[in-house]
Specification:
Layout: E1 5-7, H1 33-40, E2 43-48, H2 62-79, E3 84-86, H3 95-107, E4 112-116, H4 129-140, E5 144-147, H5 152-161, E6 167-169, H6 175-187, E7 191-194, H7 205-213, E8 218-219, H8 229-237, H9 244-259
Parallel strand pairs: 1-2, 2-3, 4-5, 5-6, 6-7, 7-8
């Protein structure tokens, strides 16, 4: 059976400085490589923020870096002609600037904040007061939020602070991290899990998510170009534990619903 596939969690790039693959010498690098690889793996639409392994910042210049990455996201939105839904960065130490970014992306028809990656830019909490102000505003604008995990307690508090904001937690992981994702999705109606990054290589991990939190809360993501895109597509498509209906929901139906596609 052929599936429509939306990759909710990617990190495309304009140039090599924003290319997140750590094995660069082994793979093609080009602005046109991303859509080619997506097409090769049956993915019609991909989403996510621009991140960088090469660019660095200080606490004072963090937002300059994030603004430049956001600029690249809007550039690629146009360059990829409807195949890419950009996610953008906000930062709790820059409330006014973050709110301006929300307005800028909202004006460009974008409703995805993140994936946020706090440890790259000197903050460690989604539940602090400044972030609450920013995300309350994002929620009013109809945004949804994609996040790299912080501590389990911090993520629980985030969900508690923003009951009307759809929050998608990345990287199921293993052990306690996995269990807390499950418990959080059971407790909070607004919390979803994307399968990118870590976790689904364990036999039964995706099926357990489906069984425990409901297939409507499991989102397909690959974490390309950090992770191997093909492995994630095949890991769902060829998972004999999943029904055809479950695969369809994971691959595209859930993302279409929360992104209002």
């Amino acid at each position: 059976m052929d599936f429509e596939i939306i990759d909710f969690h990617t990190h495309p790039y304009k140039d090599v400085s924003d290319f997140t693959c750590i094995h660069r010498s082994a793979v093609p690098i080009s602005i046109d490589e991303t859509p080619r690889l997506m097409s090769e793996n049956g993915i019609s639409l991909f989403c996510g923020s621009i991140v960088s392994h090469d660019k660095t910042s200080t606490k004072e210049t963090d937002f300059e870096l994030l603004k430049s990455l956001n600029d690249t996201a809007l550039y690629l939105k146009d360059y990829y002609k409807g195949r890419y839904i950009p996610g953008f960065h906000v930062h709790p130490n820059f409330v006014e600037e973050s709110i301006k970014e929300i307005d800028r992306f909202h004006a460009n028809g974008v409703n995805l904040v993140g994936e946020l990656v706090p440890w790259r830019v000197h903050y460690n909490s989604y539940a602090c007061e400044n972030m609450k102000t920013i995300l309350d505003y994002a929620s009013e604008k109809g945004m949804i939020l994609s996040i790299h995990p912080t501590t389990p307690d911090d993520m629980d508090k985030l969900c508690e602070n923003h009951p009307n904001l759809i929050i998608v937690g990345a990287h199921p992981g293993e052990g306690e991290q996995y269990n807390r994702h499950v418990a959080r999705a059971k407790k909070y109606d607004n919390y979803y899990v994307d399968i990118s990054g870590s976790g689904i290589h364990r036999y039964g991990a995706t099926k357990r998510l489906v069984n425990e939190i409901g297939v409507e809360k499991v989102i397909f993501g690959s974490d390309y170009a950090i992770s191997n895109l093909q492995m994630y597509v095949d890991g769902v498509k060829n998972d004999h534990l999943l029904t055809e209906k479950e695969k369809r929901f994971i691959f595209s139906e859930n993302a279409k619903r929360i992104l209002n596609i």
